[in-house]
Every structure is written in structure tokens, then in C-alpha cells.
Amino acid sequence: MRTTWFVYVMLFFVCPLHGQKIWFQDEFDDNRNGWDIIQEEFLKTGIRNGTYVIDKMSVDRFQMLKKIYLDPVKDFTLSCQMMIQAQSDKNEYGLAWGVKDMETGNLFTITAGGSIFVKRMEGGKVSFLYKEELSRLVRPNKKTNVFCISKKGDKISFALNDSVIYTGKPADFPVQRPNIGFELTGYSKLSVLSVELRQENVIKEVENMPSGLHKRNLGPNINSKYNEAVPVISADGKTLYWAVKGDPKNITADYYDIWYSTQVNDSVWNRRKNIGKPLNNSNHNWVIAVSPDNNMLIVANRYNKDGSYKPEIGISRSFRSTTGWTVPVPVIINGFDNLSKFANYFLSPDGKVMVMAIETPESEGDLDLYVSFLQPDNTWSVPRHLQGVNSFGRECAPFIAADGTTLYFSTNGRPGYGDNDIFVTTRQDDTWLNWTEPLNLGKEINTPSFDADYNMPASGAYALMTSKDNSLGGTDIFRIDLPRQVKPKPVILIKGKVLNEATGQPLAASISYYDLLTDKEAGIAISSPVDGSYNIVLPPGTDYSMMARKEGFISWSEHIYAIEIEEYTEMNIDLHLIPMEIGITVQLKNIFFETGKGVIKEESSEELNKLLKLLIENPSLEIEIAGHTDNVGSEEFNLQLSRERAEAIKKFLELGGVDPHRLRAVGYGSKKPVAPNTTEEGRAKNRRVEFVIVKK
């Protein structure tokens, strides 16, 4: 041990430990705890000979802080050994803790001239709780001074070297943020020999996390010697967006630009490309979220109509076009109020909920998590505070998994392994305000440094995150294959194209999908104007219908059976749009009848309501409702059954307000098969109800 026996004994007696365990300790044998290493003209820091050296060559105040969790309610002991190498007698150095910013925090400082200060700063105003000059307790330059702060119950004591110099009330020293570090004024060269925090804290982790998880660098096609940050991967895992700072190919090298890559296979990515204008401009640019269909991006900041930076607080959205991406347009959040210059956002898979990290007067720390909901006018509701999730620290980088119920986020306001750690919580109801207790993802994923930017595809097989460990230079993007303990619930990824039924050509269209058990819209998407492709993510446990919509076309819905699916599943389903032309026939696929009867089942309501809406929205449209059967049974029975089923649908539409003169019900029995009646599959296809456009 580097310190003398005298110093060791002094720490033991002056800093009462109350049986507390070591929560944080650093003797600076290396930089495993990630202290800032700076090499600038007027400030140089580094680990040298078992000390952390701060060489400040300016007259202003300076604080070197580290995020170290300190529970403001529990007892604690904070001790630090420092040696000033060079400083004038009037300049201060010492401990800073519970610091919100340079103007608000707690300070325990001394000067080489013998002054001792215990003070509280609030909004730049200084309150001295203790002040002494020419104290013999202060050791001169190049001698070790030991600071100790100890809270027990309703008392907090301050000791310097071998003596307690002040005892006060903890309420006079509020811990507003989990920041601990060092304060210096004037020209100073400080060596910090050790820092130790003792407090009884427990890291609440995900249970039964396995060991041996491996973070794999995504390699030179994605990463570089520059800083890579904020990875966002598409739901199908095929496209990765992220931000790069420092690359000379950026529009402004010192600012972040959006880059992207497409996947070759599960472990290989194509060479990265700058996404270019209009998403990138002269300011910082990065992707916040990508819609599951991969046809809309939520991006940071605001844009002018020419794509240049607009100096307004907010976020924007851009849509895929035939030539790339559209100029981003504002996302309007009602009552938006962010007191911080930082913010993070993430969009739920159904496109209807946004979780954001902002600071408002309601925040418990600085950035807290809030939830906002999409409104009918495409604006977003006033953000609501997630009380059970937030803490006195900083919550940031929210990520909503594809299941729509699992939320990952980064925080330093809960016991963890260093700076911000990644936690997980699960939504308890549809209010989005009630969550399970957040759990730490464990030391296999979290590190002593800042851990955030957690993102994953719909499969949940792996996560992406950023780290400086084993990087190619700056911060890199890494992949970590996930054990089941930290995977979200399994989902269904639906992939396909929207096609013109008559020509087979791809179409850009809006897509809606509905929960057939609740008869509610479950989400929205859009298809690509380039090739008509789309993706949507569905939680299993119910049945769905989905349909594309486009003016001048009639939608053809698809039924998705998902009640019994229990693992991640991918399905390929093309959606067809029928041109609104006379003679066009449309099959009603999600109409169900009681066996051998013309009685409509309840689960047909969604399909019937869509047909009703189509007729109401197109008051000149006239249709023939045609019932068909297979060839089982007598032709007389089949004709009667098909007629009754067509009449039942006609009656439903009439009760919904459609003029009977616009409707004609016909039963064709088994006369118009669309498949051979020689197999059960063929007979099932022949048992159907269609409508034919007779007037548009």
C-alpha cells in the first residue's frame, strides 16, 4: 500500500465506518473506473505513478466529477487523499459531492495557506457552514491531506487529517446528483492518491444472469478511429443507422452525421455510408428511432425546408422516398418543456407511444423519463412523468423493445457498476405509467464507464451498445448476444409488400392492423415507395387482421393467427390493393359463419365494419355481395346457404346506414369454384363471400 501507516490509522479513526462496506474505491493503479483523461492547452489530466493528476493552467474554478452512486438517505463515509504539488496560498482544492452543476453542490476545501471551508453552493450563491483561517491542520504543498465526510443518522461530520472540524445536519448538504469529485481554483497541480466511498448499497440485478457474455466489435465496416454513437437497428435487423463524429466525410467533421449500413449476413455488414443530405446538415444529426417498416425515421433537431439546420428545440421525422429520404418535418409535442440542452426519445413499435428523456420542473433528477401519446391530429400529448422509473440521477437513452412492454434505459440514479448503467423494466398496464422495479443488466453488460445506447432488432437475439473498451479508436458499436434472462417477450415480425392486385406492381400505401379480440387498431405502418416493402411487429396472444389503404383502391385484409405463438416468428404476407373499377371482385377473407348456417360470428365484426366504412366513405359505390360454397351437400342446399350468408351481410350493411339500393345479395352455391373441390384445402377456398363492384 502506498500510504504510510500513520495515514492508514488516521483514516480508521477519523472516518468512522459504522461497519459499512466499500461501495467505491480507487487507488489509481490504472484507469479501470474511467476518469477523464484530458490533454488540452490549459488542462491536462492523467494517471501517473499511482495518482490521478490534474494540472490546471487557468485562473477559473474547475471541477473534475465522476458519476458515483451515493444514496442521499443512507449513512455513508467519503474519504479522499490529496496532495497539491503547486498552488498559491489563496487558491482552494478539495472534495465536491452531490453536485448538480458548477453553481449548485457541496464543497469541502482547503488552501495551502491554511484555510478550511465547508460550504454549500445553490444557484451560484455560497453559504459557508464552516470557515477557518491559518489552521495548523492543513498540511503544506507536496504533503498529503486527508479529507473525510461521514453521515450517520441526523448528523454529518467533516474531518481533515487527524481532527473533526465541523458537525452539522445532512439537510444542509442535499445530494442532488450522484456526482463526486474534486474542486480546484486558480493555477493548480493536484495529485489524488485515493478516493473511497463506504455505503450499504445493493445492486438489484436481473436474476440468474449467466457469466461469460462477450461483446463483439462490429468491425471496420461499421466502426473507425472516430467516435461512433447512438446505434439504431431496424426491426428486421437488416439496416443499421448510427452517428459518427470526426470523420472527414461528414458535412462538418466535428459534428455528428448519420451513417448507415445494410447486413450481408448475421455477422457481416456492408461498408458504411454517410446518409447524406437532407438528413445531414451543418449541425449535429442522428437517428432517434426507425419505424418497424423501415420507411420512417425520427431524427434529432429541426430542419428548414431546404434541409438546413433550424435553431429550434425539437425533433423531426423523415419518410423514405423514391430518391432517398424526404426533408424532415417537425414532430409536434404538446406542452413540450425541456430545461436541459440534452434529450433522448424512442418510438414504440406500433408508432403510437413515445418515451423521452427530458428535464421539466417535475423531474426528480435532471433528465427523467416521460411518456407521450400520438393524437388524432398527428401531434403528441403532453409528456407524463414515469414516477416509478425515475430517480434523483439521470435517466436517458430509453429503448422500447419490439414487444411494446419491455423498456431498457440508462441511469446513474440507482446502485450500479460505475457511471450510467443499463436497466430494464416491464410495463404493467396500458397507461404506460406503471412499471416493475428496474433491474440492472449486470456486470457482463454494464461497466465502470458510461453505458447507454442500447438497441436491438425485433428478434431480441442480440443487443447493440457503444463502448470504448477494445475499440478501434474512439467509441465503437458492439454486439452482445443475449441470454434469455434479459430478452424481451417474443414477437411476430410480418414482412411483405403492398401490391396492385391487377398489375402486380408495388405501391406506397398506409397500413393498419387490428386486434380481432378487442376490435381496436393495434398499430400503423407505411410501405416503401421504392418497392412496396413493409415490416410490422406484433405481440402474440391474439389474432389480427391487417390491410393496406390507398386512395383509388379497395383494401384486401389478411388474417394473422397469433394466439398460440410462443416464440419469435417471422411471416411473409403480401397485402393487395384492388383498383376501384367496375367488375373488380374482392374476397372478404375474415368473415366467419356458424357451420351450415347463415349466422355471422362475432369475430367477423372487424371485416364487416371495414366494408361498411368503405361504402360510407364512397357513397356512389354499388356492389353485389356474392356467397359461394364447396360442392359438399345438395346443390339446392348450397344455393340456399350461400344466399342466406350474402343476405346476412347485406342486412348488416343496411343496419349500418347503407342504402339498400346500393346492395345486391346473390347466392351462387358451388357454381363458381376458385379451386378444385377434390381436397379439403380446395374446398376451404371455395367457401367464401365476395363483393363485386357494379358501379363506382
Account of the protein in words:
This protein is mostly beta strands. It folds into four domains: 5-198, Exo-inulinase, domain 1 (Jelly Rolls); 215-486, Glycosyl hydrolase domain, family 43 (Tachylectin-2, Chain A, 5 Propeller); 490-579, Immunoglobulin-like; 581-696, 60s Ribosomal Protein L30, Chain: A (2-Layer Sandwich). The chain has four helices and 48 strands. Strands 1, 2, 3, 5, 10, 11, 12 and 14 form an eight-stranded antiparallel β-sheet that branches. β8 and β9 (125-132) form a beta hairpin. The longest helix is centred in the C-terminal third of the chain and has 21 residues, at 635-655. The radius of gyration is 32 Å and the shape is elongated. Mean pLDDT is 92; it is low at 1-14.
Summarize the structure.
Helices cover 7% and strands 42% of the residues. Strand 46, helix 3 and strand 47 form a beta-alpha-beta unit.
Quickly list its features.
696 residues; mainly beta; Jelly Rolls; Immunoglobulin-like; 4 domains; 8-stranded antiparallel sheet; 4 helices
Given helix and strand content, the structural type is: mainly beta
What characterizes the major β-sheet?
A: 8 strands, antiparallel
Query: Uncertain spans, ≥5 residues at pLDDT below 50?
Result: 1-14
Structure annotation, total helices = 4
Rg, Cα atoms, Å: 32 Å
CATH class (first level) name of the largest domain: Mainly Beta
Q: Which descriptor suits the 3D outline?
A: elongated
Topology-level CATH name of the largest domain: Tachylectin-2, Chain A
Q: What does the average pLDDT come to?
A: 92
CATH architecture of the largest domain: 5 Propeller
Kindly state the number of beta strands.
48
Q: What does the oligomeric state look like here?
A: single chain
CATH homologous superfamily label of the largest domain: Glycosyl hydrolase domain, family 43
Estimate what percentage of residues fall within beta strands: 35-45%
